[in-house]
Amino acid sequence: MEITNNFSRRHFLAAGSSLALASRLTAEVSAEEKNKLPVIPKKVEKVFKNPAIKEPNDLQFVSDGLWIIDQVDPNKLFKVRPEDGKILEQLQTESMHGSGISVGNGALWITSTKGLKPGTPPLTMKIDPTNGKTLATWVTPESGIWGRPGPNATPSGGHGLKFVDGKYWMAVPFSQKIFLMDAETGKVVRSIPAPETRTHGLALDKGFLWCVGSNDRAVYKMDPKDGKLLAKVVIAEADPAPHGLDIDKNGVLWYCDAASGWICKLV
């Protein structure tokens, strides 16, 4: 998305979401319902900040490390050692403003939240893990332009992305939905309501779906069958803001903050 007057994309999304909200109120979970959710007590532990990764926007654990997508355009992918952030591997991709990363079907998958040029649709991209080249692309469903459209406006697309059983879950903030997608056709299998307007990272654990609500500074535990909210973790204002998300082999949630560069875990 093209932002002018030095107004950050994140602040624009937070402000612009309120403009688009009126027509889609039925899609978002009510504030009253969210306020009644059980709070899972967690402490934010800052793990590392690698200066080579300027704007970490999503996370994906693999057996030999942690993949991080840097949203500086065109986006690089970094595989790091999660204990200290040491870079083990990096790939240059063709993604622009990438916000989600996952692994499945022998490939890396990215949500690219804006098109290559104004007016072009945002894409979901299948990436060759050996060289970063694009293998296939699909137009992200129900993307849209926040605020008042202009000549340089670009639709906002997908954010968090996580693979499961040959499909992937993808958060699309403009739609206020989280979509389950068929990976190799790019077709929507079904969708569930998002917990708030500015959804971001996703994680899967023992049949549950976790979703970052960046405006709410919360990580929501959801039932992927219908989107019902079950509980939440609250991120304090003093802690790094939640953007990308994943869960490690020990069941610990990790998140990243693209603004500060911190990679954190919830303990």
Give an overview of the whole structure.
Helices cover 7% and strands 42% of the residues. It is mainly beta and 267 residues long. The strands form five sheets. Strands 1-20-19-18 form a four-stranded antiparallel β-sheet, with no helix packed on it. The protein has a four-stranded antiparallel β-sheet with strand order 2-3-4-5, with no helix packed on it. The chain has a four-stranded antiparallel β-sheet with strand order 6-7-8-9, with no helix packed on it. A hairpin with a 6-residue loop joins strand 16 (218-222) and strand 17. The longest helix has 13 residues, at 9-21. The N and C termini lie far apart (34 Å).
Record keyword descriptors for this entry:
disordered N terminus, 4-stranded antiparallel β-sheet, Neuraminidase, mainly beta, 267 residues
What profile does the largest beta sheet have? 4 strands, antiparallel
**Tally the helices: what do you get?**
2
| Distance, first to last CA | 34 Å
Number of strands: 20
Our Rg estimate from Cα atoms comes to 17 Å
The name of the CATH topology is Neuraminidase
How do the SSEs run, as a string of H and E?
HHEEEEEEEEEEEEEEEEEEEE
Total domain modules: 1
CATH class: Mainly Beta
Instruction: Determine the mean pLDDT.
Output: 89
Q: Which superfamily, in CATH terms, is the homologous superfamily?
A: TolB, C-terminal domain
Identify the overall geometry: globular
* Percent of residues in beta strands: 35-45%
Low-pLDDT parts are: 1-9, 11-27
**CATH architectural grouping:** 6 Propeller
Global structural class: mainly beta
Helix content percent band = under 10%
Q: Strand order across the biggest sheet? A: 1-20-19-18
The oligomeric state is: single chain
